[in-house]
Specification:
alpha/beta; Rossmann fold; five-stranded parallel sheet; 9 helices; globular
């Protein structure tokens, strides 16, 4: 069955499958991988690393400032709402989970209120079916958002209509608005603060977003609960 599946996917042209070989559970001989595939792996990893180096060079101040805004809102009794689509929706859920749970197992602290607006399938399907998907996040912001809360909108294009509308609603309410984007888009002009990733490829933007999201969670924890042993205190200006 596995050999048939490999044939269907044309993988038999690029990897060898033989359960009798002493290659572990997979039966795949890694040394037979064509050069173009190993080259693709190296190219992707190196470009992803290069992009993170560029962010480290130019965007550190924005990331620290965004973390301070989130920490101040939480310290004042606010909460964090997050919205995005596709991979960015997964990022919202990932980030909300780390706020409510914890980022690191060895750093115990109280939960921080954060809600991913991407998880309520009953609401999302009902509202989208009746009223259209473009207003699904906006409606939740209007219902759940309060002045002093934070909305984090994640969009690799910066133009996702439902995220844009959610941001506009948050601004009207008096929420702090933070956007994670690619090279630009409408969110840059709407959000109070934007952390742009200077790339046009969605894959690389999303990989960089995940690193930024982890850093934001880490800095917020430190602002609210103190430095972890061996880590530098976050710095930045209001």
């Amino acid at each position: 069955m596995t050999q048939e599946l490999f044939a269907i996917l044309n993988h038999d042209k690029t990897v060898a499958f033989d359960p009798s070989l002493n290659t572990g559970d997979t039966g795949i001989r890694v040394d037979d991988t064509p050069d173009e595939l190993t080259g693709e792996v190296r190219t992707h990893l190196l470009e992803s690393a290069r992009l993170k180096e560029e962010i480290a060079e130019h965007q550190v101040g924005l990331i620290v400032a965004a973390a301070r805004l989130i920490a101040k809102a939480l310290q004042s009794g606010g909460k964090v709402l997050l919205c995005g689509n596709g991979g960015s929706a997964a990022d919202c859920q990932h980030m909300a989970a780390e706020f409510v749970s914890r980022l690191r197992r060895d750093f115990a602290r109280p939960g921080l209120p954060a809600i991913a607006l991407t998880t309520d399938t009953s609401f999302l399907t009902a509202f989208s079916n009746d009223c259209g998907f473009e207003g699904a996040f906006e409606r939740q912001v209007q219902t759940l958002g309060q002045p002093g809360d934070v909305l984090i909108g994640i969009s690799t294009s910066g133009n996702s209509a439902n995220v844009v509308r959610a941001m506009e609603a948050a601004v009207k309410i008096g929420m702090t608005t933070i956007a994670l984007t690619g090279c630009g888009g409408y969110l840059v002009d709407i959000a109070q603060m934007t952390i742009p990733v200077p790339h046009i490829n969605t894959l690389y933007i999303q990989e960089a977003h995940l690193a930024i999201e982890h850093i934001l969670c880490s800095l917020v924890e430190q602002y609210l609960f103190g430095r972890r042993s061996g880590e530098a205190e976050p710095t930045g200006t209001d």
